[in-house]
Design brief:
2 domains, TIM Barrel, pyridoxal phosphate, Lyase, Ornithine Decarboxylase, Chain A, domain 1, De-COase2_pyr-phos_BS, 8-stranded parallel β-barrel
Length: 406
């Protein structure tokens, strides 16, 4: 969890819930800045660049704010590229790292002038045959490292769909040579929520072994996966230790390479997760023979991580912060089993109380849906002490907007 001093106070969250209604996502801009500055400090001894992995949260106001900090943008779809350009990112400050897209989407990114990262042999060969050395590219490699807090977010293992296997290096070299492709970057991303610094070090050593086969590299991109704490006592990536060890290793390798090299990172959750708060209202207290449920005015249509990833979010009753603690199971209003948390200690909850989910900035709203024809929540940004609505709550008209009545 964030330090208490980093958190928006409970009484302030209640005020915003009353002002903007619930459910509501609230983001604290200055917390994003704190996280970005942590990365800059940790890697200050090497030539490092950071690209926000915007699949975590793409609200245009968040993108504009992150751009204002001097951070780059990591995108995984052509739509995210367009959002990044609209938010003011320069094309050379955007990297496009899709997977399982066709050549047309890659060409569309090329026409926009962004950095292109290719992750399969087929597209690599097609792009090389069509464009040769006229447009530089990055190649995403699969280092065959199992890493990440959940199999669903591990992306560098042998069964992963991501990247080109390091054991296909000779095939890559033949394509590069025959098509005259100019490869200026190598990329890997092993997974999210990596606790062990040695995983990154093992990965970077593998990348160094591959890099010697490419004479025109300008950067090596190590993805991200930096873990943040979701509850007291949670392990998290030791950014400062990683910064020291990785910078030493990278600087030693860079000194042996024939040209200057940068190291790139793509933090997503690390930047925005702890900035986010999801506030809901207790609709009903329902007691059964086994459990006391708090049924809230949301469900996995708004926050799917607990159901999809078994993710933990700290939940608190901000309407009654000093009440007697009781044991509750917090559930949603969706016509499916949508349990946010089993057997949680909460200050006594009454119907109408506001509950807050902490660490809700990453993959919260971004993975939301209109399941059960429920409306998507509003989003609010707190910046310089001022709260502003940055997305209106859905209306029934939004559900019908793209439907065609016959």
């Amino acid at each position: 969890m964030s330090k208490q001093s980093d958190l928006l106070p409970a009484e302030y969250l209640v005020k915003l819930a009353e002002e903007f209604g619930t459910p509501v996502y609230i983001y604290h801009a200055e917390k994003i800045k704190i996280q970005y500055e942590k990365l800059q400090t940790a890697f200050q001894k090497t030539d490092a660049r950071f690209f926000y992995a915007c699949k975590a949260l793409t609200n245009i106001n968040i993108l504009k704010y992150i751009n204002s900090l001097g951070c780059g943008l990591d995108t995984v779809s052509i739509q995210e590229v367009h959002l990044g350009l609209k938010a003011g990112f320069a094309p050379n400050n955007i990297i496009f790292t899709p997977n399982c897209v066709d050549l047309e989407e890659i060409i569309a990114a090329k026409e926009l002038g962004v950095n292109i990262n290719i992750d399969n042999i087929s597209i690599l060969e097609q792009f090389g045959n069509r464009f040769g050395d006229s447009y530089p590219i990055c190649i995403r490699l699969n280092p065959h490292i199992m890493a990440g807090g959940n199999y669903k977010i591990s992306t560098g293992h042998v069964d992963s769909k991501f990247g080109i296997s390091i054991h296909q290096l000779r095939h890559i070299e033949r394509i590069v040579k025959s098509t005259k492709l100019k490869v200026t970057g190598l990329h890997m991303h092993t997974g999210s929520e990596i606790k062990d610094v040695d995983v990154f070090l093992r990965g970077v050593e593998i990348m160094f072994e591959q890099a010697v086969h490419f004479p025109d590299l300008e950067f090596i991109d190590l993805g991200s996966g930096f873990k943040v704490a979701y509850q007291a006592g949670d392990p998290e990536t030791d950014i400062n230790l990683l910064g020291r060890k990785l910078s030493d290793a990278f600087n030693k390798f860079a000194a042996t390479y024939k040209r200057p090299l940068q190291v790139w990172f793509e933090p997503g959750k690390f930047l925005v997760s702890q900035s986010g708060y999801f506030v809901v209202k207790a609709n009903v207290i329902k007691q059964t023979t086994a459990t006391v449920f708090v049924g809230v005015n949301s469900g996995f249509n708004h926050l799917i991580r607990p159901m999809f990833y078994d993710a933990f979010h700290l939940i608190k009753n901000i309407s009654n912060p000093k009440g007697t603690e009781r044991i509750y199971t917090i559930v949603g209003n969706i016509c499916e089993t949508d349990t946010f948390g089993w057997d949680r200690k909460l200050n006594e909850v009454k119907e109408g109380d506001f509950l807050v989910f902490y660490n809700a900035g990453a993959y919260g709203f971004e993975m939301s849906s209109n399941f059960n024809s429920r409306l998507k929540p509003a989003e609010v940004l707190v910046k310089d002490g001022k709260a502003q609505l940055i997305r209106k709550r859905d209306t029934l008209e939004d559900l019908l907007r793209n439907q065609i009545e016959l």
